């Protein structure tokens, strides 16, 4: 009986070929492969025609799906090719890693996150192979493994060499082996002992290179049993899910990740290519970006890469040589092209596929069937869709996306569509494998997307006690076409609004209520009850709202102002005579009450002036009153801030108003002006750049026309020193000096 240890890197075409070559020569009668024993019933799906890597084994706790672990595989993963070899030649294969029923239980017990990879060495502690790289002149452990293992031409005794190298590392760096790895290795040895008792003649053990020394010299059975004694257990469910090359990359945070999965895919599928096919792919990509790349560019790039490899004593060009050649020949010395090539080819957006008969939860099955029917499958690239809700197909997609979004599945995210009209929606689709965990987690709420969304949100809304929270959610639920849920939420909203006495809460809810009533018309839904609640709320705001606007400080006034702005916009959008009259009465009370904070009074005056409710003579009297010496400068500044809120157009169009405010600012004493400066700066900073520029030009013209004669220069003013700040003022106002 012989044990053959094959130490590998978890993803690499060189390691993959070495393993296959060794297995074909050895012809083992048992293969032990690093992996979870719970996944063995799923191995039969590997040979399915529908199975297309990259894929991953997903293991999770059914009662807590977010406690999960992924085991990704690509075509060039040694484990994947080992599995296919065993199934092809009917060789018994066993996963011999520490079972996840124990591993995930330990994670929960130690309040540590589940391992997201089958890597043996945590990235945060560095790569122990960096020591070998340093000794042999390579930049890091990744480069050392790439050159000495992946691209090695003479593979004789390669696994013996790996064993010796890792043994030396583990002896020198004993602290780099984690306690969890010691448990895993003890379980591996237990599995090997069991296999030895079954009289297999040739046992091939395929595992991460770091574990090999621990499987050479065995401790006693008693020591291993003592280490594994009393391990906790939890229930585990396994399935296959599609994976992406982007999530296989090291940058995704995957512990066993690689720098260039797309490049490795090319190396695995085109081992005899001299670089022409790879550079042709690059040229094709650049042509899609409207770059002029000829066949001559391809030929010269390949030749330059091969020459660079020969000068460096390399058997063949690596990705580094190709990137340098691309920069020189196609980029004319500019490496900006490499970022595009990296994303599209070196990393790649390849998404795998799993057979339809793989066991999965009913909710995921329903979602995938709907995706297929609506022609919006999971894809690895980011995809944007503009939906026209007047088209039946787009309307169905909209309903589907809204339901997923409400369920907390972030595959589809809403955006802001350009143009006018409520019939357009913009969605951004981006699939991440972890989203399947979210779907599994929500599967306990129902077998279909409609059922799960309704039950999940009914539970969420039953705990809501604030009207704005409920109206905001109801506004999102309406486009999802969940009539029974809408009815239940409307009844709850009716109960909350009847019992509420919080004016600010009701004001905050009005914009969503207006949107609901307006959206109901677009969706052909009856929201008359919501309309009645809306009118009742505005009536209650009208009755008691003035009380929350008096005897308040600046912060409270600013908070109320934001709610006033949103509510006014909402009421104007709905534009019903009854609500308009009720709201204008409320604004009139704010404007005329002497105890209201001037910030709110100024805004209310602006609204009344814009809607033509104030005559020019009355407006002049109001401005004269607030600019009179009887008011404190701070009150006047707050009033101006409210009056000019977010728009300076009124100052550009109304010369009389401009003169009053301009004069009031100019006659302030130095100390008073410095005190008012933060308020005035905040007011004018909210104007658009074009408005600020035109106001500066108007101020300049006013000075030339002598309109500022009422504010002569102070005797203490030094004109030469003042002239030094004029260029800065021009720059701040956006005016070009002549």
Counted up, domains total: 4
Main pleated-sheet profile: 4 strands, parallel
Q: Write down the overall geometry.
A: elongated
What structural class results from the helix and strand content? alpha/beta
Describe it for me?
By secondary structure, this protein is of the alpha/beta class. The chain folds into four domains: 2-51 and 75-99 and 120-228, no CATH class; 272-347, no CATH class; 370-436, no CATH class; 465-712. The protein is built from 33 helices and ten strands. A hairpin with a 2-residue loop joins strand 3 (55-61) and strand 4. The protein is elongated and about 105 Å long. The N and C termini lie far apart (95 Å).
Short description:
With 738 residues, this protein is of the alpha/beta class. The chain contains 33 helices and 10 strands.
Describe the secondary structure blueprint for this structure.
Blueprint: E1 2-8, H1 13-26, E2 30-33, E3 55-61, E4 64-73, H2 78-88, E5 93-95, H3 100-109, H4 129-136, H5 141-150, H6 158-172, H7 179-197, E6 202-208, H8 221-228, E7 237-242, H9 245-248, H10 261-269, H11 276-288, H12 295-311, H13 319-329, H14 337-347, H15 362-374, E8 383-388, H16 392-406, E9 412-415, E10 424-429, H17 435-442, H18 449-462, H19 467-477, H20 483-499, H21 503-522, H22 528-544, H23 554-574, H24 577-592, H25 598-610, H26 616-626, H27 633-643, H28 649-653, H29 655-666, H30 670-685, H31 689-704, H32 719-723, H33 726-733
Helix pairs in contact: 1-2, 4-5, 7-8, 10-14, 11-12, 11-14, 12-13, 16-18, 18-20, 19-20, 19-21, 21-22, 21-23, 22-24, 24-25, 25-27, 27-30
């Amino acid at each position: 009986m012989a044990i053959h240890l094959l130490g590998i890197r978890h993803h690499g075409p060189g390691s993959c070929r070495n393993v296959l070559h060794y297995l074909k020569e050895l012809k083992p009668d048992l293969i032990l492969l690093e992996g979870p024993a719970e996944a063995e019933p799923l191995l039969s799906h590997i040979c399915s025609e529908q199975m297309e890597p990259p894929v991953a084994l997903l293991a999770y706790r059914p009662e807590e799906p977010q406690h999960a672990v992924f085991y990704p595989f690509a075509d060039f993963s040694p484990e994947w090719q080992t599995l296919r070899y065993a199934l092809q030649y009917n060789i018994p294969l066993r996963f011999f890693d520490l079972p996840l029923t124990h591993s995930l239980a330990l994670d929960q017990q130690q309040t540590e996150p589940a391992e997201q990879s089958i890597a043996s060495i945590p990235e945060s502690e560095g790569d122990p192979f960096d020591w070998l790289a340093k000794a042999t002149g390579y930049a890091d452990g990744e480069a050392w493994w790439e050159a000495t293992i992946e691209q090695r031409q003479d593979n004789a005794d390669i696994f013996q060499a790996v064993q010796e190298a890792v043994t030396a590392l583990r002896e020198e760096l004993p602290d780099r082996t984690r306690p969890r790895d010691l448990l895993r290795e003890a379980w591996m040895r237990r599995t090997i002992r069991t296999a030895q008792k079954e009289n297999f003649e040739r046992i091939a053990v395929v595992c991460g290179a770091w574990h090999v020394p621990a499987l050479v010299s065995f401790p006693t059975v008693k020591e291993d049993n003592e280490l594994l004694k009393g391990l906790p257990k939890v229930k585990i469910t396994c399935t296959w899910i599609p994976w992406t090359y982007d999530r296989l990359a090291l940058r995704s945070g995957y512990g066993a990740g690689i720098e260039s999965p797309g490049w490795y895919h090319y190396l695995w599928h085109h081992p005899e290519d001299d670089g022409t096919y790879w550079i042709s792919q690059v040229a094709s990509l650049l042509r899609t970006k409207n770059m002029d790349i000829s066949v001559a560019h391809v030929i010269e790039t390949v030749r330059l890469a091969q020459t660079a490899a020969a000068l460096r004593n390399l058997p063949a060009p690596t990705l580094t040589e190709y990137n340098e050649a691309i920069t020189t020949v196609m980029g004319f010395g500019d490496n900006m092209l490499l970022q595009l090539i990296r994303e599209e080819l070196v990393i790649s957006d390849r998404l795998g596929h799993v057979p339809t008969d793989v066991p999965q939860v009913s909710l995921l099955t329903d979602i995938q069937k709907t995706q297929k029917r609506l022609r919006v499958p999971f894809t690895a690239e980011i995809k944007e869709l503009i939906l026209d809700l007047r088209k039946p197909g787009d309307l169905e997609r909209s309903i589907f996306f809204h339901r997923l979004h409400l369920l907390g599945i972030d595959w589809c995210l809403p955006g802001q569509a350009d143009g006018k009209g409520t019939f357009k929606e913009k969605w951004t689709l981006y699939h991440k494998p972890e989203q399947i965990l979210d779907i599994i987690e929500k599967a306990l709420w129902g077998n279909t997307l409609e059922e799960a969304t309704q039950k999940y949100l009914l539970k969420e809304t039953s705990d809501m006690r604030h009207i704005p929270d409920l109206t905001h959610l109801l506004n999102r639920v309406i486009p999802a076409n969940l009539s029974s849920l809408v009815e239940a939420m409307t009844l709850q909203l009716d109960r909350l609004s009847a019992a509420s006495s919080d004016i600010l809460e009701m004001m905050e809810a009005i914009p969503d209520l207006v949107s609901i009533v307006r959206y109901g018309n677009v969706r052909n839904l009856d929201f008359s009850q919501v309309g009645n609640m809306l009118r009742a709320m505005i009536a209650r705001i009208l009755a008691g709202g003035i009380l929350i606007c008096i005897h308040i400080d600046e912060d409270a006034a600013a908070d109320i102002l934001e709610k006033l702005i949103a509510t006014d916009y909402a009421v104007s959008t709905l534009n019903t005579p009854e609500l308009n009259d009720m709201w204008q009465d409320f604004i009139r009370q704010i404007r005329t009450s002497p105890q209201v904070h001037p910030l709110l009074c100024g805004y209310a005056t602006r609204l009344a002036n814009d809607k033509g409710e104030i005559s020019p003579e009355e407006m002049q009297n109001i401005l004269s009153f607030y600019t009179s010496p009887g008011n404190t400068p701070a009150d006047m500044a707050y009033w101006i801030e409210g009056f000019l809120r977010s728009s300076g157009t009124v100052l550009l169009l109304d010369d009389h108003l401009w003169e009053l405010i301009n004069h009031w600012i100019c006659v302030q004493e130095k100390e008073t002006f410095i005190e008012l400066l933060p308020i005035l700066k905040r007011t004018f900073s909210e104007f658009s750049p074009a408005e600020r520029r035109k106001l500066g030009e108007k101020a300049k013209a006013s000075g030339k026309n002598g309109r500022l004669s009422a504010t002569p220069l102070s005797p203490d003013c030094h004109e030469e020193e003042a002239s030094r700040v004029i260029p800065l003022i021009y720059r701040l106002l956006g005016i070009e000096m002549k």
